[in-house]
């Protein structure tokens, strides 16, 4: 397998500008409004990420739970992993090392980590029609991915690129989706963007279909930017924009309600 060359990426910069404007508006509220508290933003982050119980029974791209017991375990692992990520971000640790992949796997998917602690998979893996690289290729591909990420200065593009390529490599026997999406959110949150999750079955279908077609096109033409890879990047931008807009609305509403209480006091 050959990694997607970074120089081929074509991104919708107008949409990135829109995301940046929305995120700046959120931080203006937090910094300059007398009706907001310092922890409003983090509280909103955590509430949105933990409010996943409505997905019970949907084995979608981010919620791998089939029953109530699995859901409870998933949510607990997610909570622990998010707490770890936030502590790392508070310590000014951005996502940039292979070791951090194993840290995420150990916390969010301990059963997968226990099978091969601190090692990449040793078995052949196929995702639909996509044959993932052989186990012997995985270490060098992951190292190359982290090296290529260093040349992507925009954190949004870097996060989406990591997501696309790490899923294509599939470095672990299990837990790849969870680790990849959390790693992407680590990149976003470190740069003060909101985290993003897939939270409905239709988005799940689009996500899987787009990745499948992107992988197929890149297998045939590894150095050609194609419509499906572009579509994946575009869909990810839409998710970040939607998450940013919802975050702004939620934080703004907090201020509105406090103002009403203040005026009526």
Largest sheet, if any?
2 strands, antiparallel
Number of strands: 2
Unreliably modeled segments: 52-63
Order of helices and strands: HHHHHEEHHHHH
CATH topology: Fic-like fold
Architecture, according to CATH? Orthogonal Bundle
Strand order across the biggest sheet? Answer: 1-2
What oligomeric assembly is this protein in? Answer: single chain
Radius of gyration: 19 Å
**How many structural domains does the protein architecture include?**
1
Q: What fraction of the residues are assigned to beta strands by DSSP? A: under 5%
Count of helix runs: 10
Which labels suit this protein?
265 residues; mainly alpha; Fic-like fold; 2 strands; globular
Structure report:
The structure is a single chain. The protein is mainly α. The protein has a single domain (6-248), classed as Fic-like fold (Orthogonal Bundle). The protein contains 10 helices and 2 strands, in the order αααααββααααα. The chain has a two-stranded antiparallel sheet. α3 (68-90) runs parallel beside α8, α4 crosses α8 and α6 (138-149) runs antiparallel to α7 (155-169). 33% of the residues are buried. The model is unreliable at 52-63 (pLDDT under 50).
């Amino acid at each position: 397998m050959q990694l997607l060359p970074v120089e081929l990426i074509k991104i919708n910069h107008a949409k990135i500008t829109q995301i940046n404007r929305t995120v700046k508006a959120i931080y203006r509220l937090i910094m300059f409004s007398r009706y907001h508290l310092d922890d409003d933003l983090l509280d909103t982050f955590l509430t949105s990420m933990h409010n996943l119980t409505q997905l019970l029974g949907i084995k979608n791209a981010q919620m791998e739970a089939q029953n109530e017991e699995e859901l409870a375990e998933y949510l607990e692992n997610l909570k622990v992993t998010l707490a770890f990520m936030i502590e790392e971000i508070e310590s000014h640790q951005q996502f940039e090392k292979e070791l951090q992949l194993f840290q995420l796997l150990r916390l969010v998917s301990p059963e997968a980590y226990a099978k091969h602690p601190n090692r990449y998979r040793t078995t052949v893996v196929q995702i639909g029609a996509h044959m993932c690289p052989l186990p012997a290729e995985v270490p060098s591909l992951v190292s190359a991915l982290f090296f290529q990420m260093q040349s992507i200065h925009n954190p949004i593009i870097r996060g989406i690129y990591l997501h696309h390529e790490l899923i294509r490599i599939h470095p672990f026997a299990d837990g790849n989706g969870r680790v990849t999406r959390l790693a992407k959110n680590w990149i976003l949150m470190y740069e003060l963007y909101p985290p993003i999750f897939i939270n409905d079955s239709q988005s799940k279908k689009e996500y899987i279909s787009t990745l499948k077609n992107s992988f197929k096109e890149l297998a045939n033409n590894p150095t050609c930017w194609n419509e499906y890879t572009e579509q994946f990047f575009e869909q990810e931008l839409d998710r970040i924009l939607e998450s940013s807009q919802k975050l702004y609305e939620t934080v703004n509403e907090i201020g509105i309600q406090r103002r009403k209480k203040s005026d009526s006091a």
